[in-house]
Amino acid sequence: MGVYETKLRTLYVMRILAENTDQDHILNATDICKLLEQQYQIHADRRTIYGEIEALRMFGVDIIQQKGKASGYYIGERSFEFPELKLLVDSVQSSKFITEKKSRELIFKLEKLCSTFQAEQLARQVTILNRLKTGNEEIYYSVDKIHSAIYNNKKIQFQYAEWTPKKELRFRKNGMFYKISPWVLTWDDEKYYLIAFDDVVGKVKHYRVDKMKHLDICEEDREGQKQFEKFDPSELTKKTFGMYGGMEIGVKLLCQNSLAGVILDRFGKDVWMRTVDENQFIVHVNVVVSPQFFGWITGVGAHVKIVEPMEVREAYRKYLETILEGYRV
């Protein structure tokens, strides 16, 4: 056997073990010899296989030997444990911004990181999931370009779109290109948002990535470093609802005790809370007051009330009147 064939044999043994073994499925030396012959037309005896396995162990492959009546070998530790792969597959499948086509491509690649037997379980896991997916694959590449621009300290330009009642995306500002400095990509309400600095108006703004079209990286360096020196994306997502802009205001809410978990999940454990009686508590939160915030309050139900400031209470009252009027119409 030539030098290259000998080297290939070692690699083929590693592939056979990676694809055909796990803790519940083992192969002995004779099994590996048969698979080498069947799949790669390479002849080997058991003593040769022992040597290949020892070489792979020295290389760093975690090959476990099981002794006893059903003796053999299997791959132990891998780059990802099987439960971790299940989590990754479910995350890919549930992400609305990843198209169905791209989801299948990514899951197929994840299946290569485990044995074929475990890959079958991942495939079965995928078939029982039925979640709404976007049909726009452009967002996948937009996210990659934004990451590159942030890493290389460059501005980006793009056209920004909005949905029409005809379910069509229409460009804002007659298709004019926006040019901004990207700083943070964040995930909120199952959508990607870009938080950026607009040097024309001197403000921090955010954009829905799935509405950004024809995105390109510019040659100009980013601006707005001062605004983002102490920027905390998690604080922004606590204060905004659906990432809609508006004025940030301190609001006092009166809540039933049953909502303690809801409040902590939404605003974090550092939020100020004080018990009023055995049934209620007061919480102070900083929020961006918007129709989305009022919608969240309405969705939580009668167990939460806006105490102050009065202007927010009045704005919420008008919001409810508008909603009720809409129902009447």
In a few lines, what is going on in this structure?
This protein is α+β, with helices and mostly antiparallel strands.
What features would you describe in this structure?
This protein has 329 residues and is α+β, with helices and mostly antiparallel strands. Helix content is 42%, strand content 26%. The chain is built from eleven helices and twelve strands. β6 and β7 (203-208) form a beta hairpin.
Topology:
Layout: H1 3-20, H2 29-40, H3 46-59, E1 63-66, E2 72-75, H4 82-94, H5 100-111, H6 116-127, H7 138-151, E3 154-163, E4 169-171, E5 177-188, E6 191-198, E7 203-208, E8 212-221, H8 233-239, E9 248-256, H9 260-267, E10 272-275, E11 280-288, H10 291-300, E12 304-308, H11 310-328
Antiparallel strand pairs: 1-2, 3-4, 3-5, 3-8, 5-6, 6-7, 9-11, 9-12, 10-11
